Amino acid sequence: MSAKKAAAVGKATAGKDDETTTAGKDATGKAAAKKPAGAGVAVGKPESRTALVRRARRINRELAEIYPYAHPELDFENPFQLVIATVLSAQTTDLRVNQTTPALFAEYPTPEDLAAADPEKVEEILRPTGFFRAKTRSVIGLSKALVEEFGGEVPGRLEDLVKLPGVGRKTAFVVLGNAFGRPGITVDTHFQRLVRRWRWTDETEPDKIETAVGALFPKSEWTMLSHHVIFHGRRICHARKPACGACPVAPLCPAYGEGETDPEKAKKLLKYEKGGFPGQRLNPPQAYLDAGGRPAPPLGAG
């Protein structure tokens, strides 16, 4: 997909073999490519394994051009900060965690410091993240385990990470993929929602989703695949009202039409969640393109 095509995030551009039934206009007022009635996928008809793999990989390629800067949206400087931030992100937003962790890490910069911390003081710092008492127990317990079992270092193996308090497979893969460069699929709520909408799998359990989706892609792509899907879920393919009419992968989506299909109305549903502006609505060209017409990171992205 070219930079010009990436500019049309607000347009669901159909492939040459896709049937089209409705049309809209892009942000410049020009006629947009028509929207596919079935999003280019025959709903209700069986899809061969080969066709599924090709469609899944094409979706990932499209998202890679729209979100070339995709990355963990938690701020961290080392594996310890990442594992703590990921544990704290449960039941809250990454933005809230990023607003909270600077004070936490300034006071307790190492596992040894946090392991010896007064729980009441930690609770006060973590209060804005919600469930602060349980999270305090987890991060202090996690820090103690790092000190006592791993010499104060975050382990780089899945089987060790999941033994730490508050760390499940999702958190472990975030850490492995982004702190150690070891491929992993992060099955969070966004990932689960999108891969089921795209009919990559019918599984509902995270570990089974991880296995099913992982089989569609080379292992080397797993970490960035997770970022692409999660970015898309946060910005366009929302849980309650997906912005179908502003979705760049609509031609490949069996669930096209579950959300708003009118291009202009769909653009108003786009969300921006980085840099202190949660939920800010943006026009696609400003949201995704730099001055040269190339996809660009949102404000605040590293």
State the CATH superfamily name of the largest domain: Helix-hairpin-Helix base-excision DNA repair enzymes (C-terminal)
DSSP strand tally: 0
Number of domains: 2
The biggest sheet amounts to: none
Name the helix and strand elements from N-terminus to C-terminus, one letter apiece: HHHHHHHHHHHHHH
% residues in beta strands:
under 5%
DSSP summary: helix tally: 14
Shape: globular
Q: Over all CA atoms, what is the radius of gyration?
A: 21 Å
Low-confidence stretches: 1-40, 273-302
Rounded mean pLDDT is 81
Which CATH architecture of the largest domain? Answer: Orthogonal Bundle
Helical coverage, percent range = 40-55%
The class by helix and strand makeup works out as: mainly alpha
Query: What separation lies between the terminal Cα atoms?
Result: 24 Å
Topology-level CATH name of the largest domain: Endonuclease Iii, domain 2
- Briefly, what CATH class of the largest domain? Mainly Alpha
Protein name: Endonuclease III
Family: Belongs to the Nth/MutY family.
Cofactor: [4Fe-4S] cluster
Keywords: 4Fe-4S, DNA damage, DNA repair, DNA-binding, Endonuclease, Glycosidase, Hydrolase, Iron, Iron-sulfur, Lyase, Metal-binding, Nuclease
